[in-house]
């Protein structure tokens, strides 16, 4: 049986530690403890960024869906391969083929040890922080990893930095997994996106803009005020945290120009839908630039055209 893997033990850790903006750090002992903590405390989302595909037939796929008595369980069969993320594999552990569990034991030794309740015998890491990184006017997108088997369920993991208003548009694409920096946990000085100029509202589209600067003196005056307010709110935020205000409340005064960072693990069919919608001329410029960067990295295959809606 052919078995393919996207991710590593460290991928689980990175997608958990992004909440603290410490996803670039490696400390094997602490990382294994974190995996154990996530598993024991049912913090499931970081496990969704590890994906496996293995050869299967339709009968096994349907039998698996019948055996796992949980309506949230998800497994996808593309006609040749069965695709599951690690969260779903763990929930169907006793039904997994021996070949799959053997690959997990070899390639995800820390996760395997935690699930079966034994002392870890190893820890697997990502080969690099990102394979490819593209900077745009409002942030960056990095390709962390990919698993391509010429399937609509080919999987990709990206790390993205962008303004909050772009992230909230991004998260509308729900067929995928996200883990994001949380200002409940971090209090370092936030970074902000300030556009080079303020675009005009479109006359023909209520939700879009024209790539034309606002007339002067308003463009310069408003940008000056935006920068002043951003600096003032940064100072207020720092003072509130310093005086003991809970970070989960203090963050409320930070504007949507603030940048955030998140991991996105997504199947190709959903990725193609994202590329179609977010490279469209009506998409907001900032997310359009990031979507075009992704398209340049991994291409567009048109699997979204197989969906009616």
Strand order within the widest sheet? 5-6-7-11-8
Straight-line distance between termini: 34 Å
Helix proportion range:
25-40%
Indicate the proportion of strand residues.
15-25%
Let me know the largest β-sheet: 5 strands, antiparallel
Radius of gyration: 22 Å
Overall 3D shape: globular
Number of strands: 11
| Helix count, DSSP H or I runs of 4 or more residues | 11
Helix/strand order, N-terminal first: EHHEHEEHHHEEEHEEEHHEHH
- What ranges have pLDDT less than 50 throughout 5 or more consecutive residues? none
Mean pLDDT: 94
Structural class of the helix and strand makeup?
alpha+beta
Condensed summary:
This protein is an alpha+beta fold. The protein is 38% helix and 19% strand.
Topology:
Blueprint: E1 3-6, H1 9-17, H2 28-40, E2 51-55, H3 58-67, E3 76-77, E4 81-85, H4 86-91, H5 98-107, H6 109-116, E5 132-135, E6 140-147, E7 155-163, H7 164-170, E8 177-180, E9 199-201, E10 209-213, H8 218-242, H9 247-250, E11 259-267, H10 268-278, H11 285-298
Helix pairs in contact: 1-2, 2-6, 5-6
């Amino acid at each position: 049986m052919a078995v393919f893997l996207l991710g590593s033990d460290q991928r689980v850790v990175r997608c958990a530690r992004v909440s603290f903006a410490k996803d670039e750090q490696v400390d094997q002992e602490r990382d294994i403890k974190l995996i154990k903590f996530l598993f024991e405390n049912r913090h499931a989302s970081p496990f969704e960024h590890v994906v496996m595909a293995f050869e299967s037939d339709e009968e096994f796929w349907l039998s698996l869906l019948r055996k796992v008595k949980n309506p949230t369980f998800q497994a996808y069969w593309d006609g040749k391969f069965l695709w599951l993320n690690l969260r779903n594999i763990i929930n169907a552990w006793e039904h997994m083929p021996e070949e799959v569990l053997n690959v997990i034991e070899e390639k995800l030794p820390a996760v395997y040890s935690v699930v079966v309740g034994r002392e870890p015998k190893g820890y697997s890491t990502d080969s690099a922080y990102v394979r490819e990184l593209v900077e745009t006017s409002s942030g960056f997108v990095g390709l962390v990893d990919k698993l391509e088997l010429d399937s609509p369920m080919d999987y990709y993991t990206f790390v993205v930095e962008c303004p909050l208003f772009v992230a909230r548009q991004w998260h509308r694409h729900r067929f995928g997994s996200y883990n994001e920096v949380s200002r409940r946990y971090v209090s370092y000085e936030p970074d902000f996106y300030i556009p080079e100029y303020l675009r005009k509202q479109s006359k023909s589209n209520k939700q879009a803009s024209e790539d034309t600067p606002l007339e002067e003196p308003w463009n310069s005056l408003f940008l000056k005020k935006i920068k002043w307010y951003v600096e003032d709110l940064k100072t207020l935020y720092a003072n509130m945290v310093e005086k003991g205000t809970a970070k989960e409340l203090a963050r409320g005064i930070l504007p949507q120009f603030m940048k955030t960072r998140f991991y996105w693990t997504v199947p190709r069919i959903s990725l193609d839908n994202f590329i179609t919608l977010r490279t469209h001329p009506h998409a907001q410029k900032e997310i359009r630039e990031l979507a075009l960067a992704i398209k340049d990295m991994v291409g567009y295959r048109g699997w979204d055209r197989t969906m009616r809606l």
